[in-house]
Amino acid sequence: MEQKIVKKLESEIEQAIAEVIMKTGMKRLPLPPSHQTIHLMSKAAVTVYEAAVENQRPKE
Question: Cβ distance 6 to 46 under 8 Å?
């Protein structure tokens, strides 16, 4: 995928994860995630999506 799209997806997913965590309440979580953890979560989500896209491409 284009790097521009990957970065946009990571940014949007990171914001969504942070929003869900805030709505859930930090006190309800066993470990409040750091910004770095949230960032890595968004990168992991995009990586899974990239793998799904790659798996849909016709095999040569």
Answer: yes
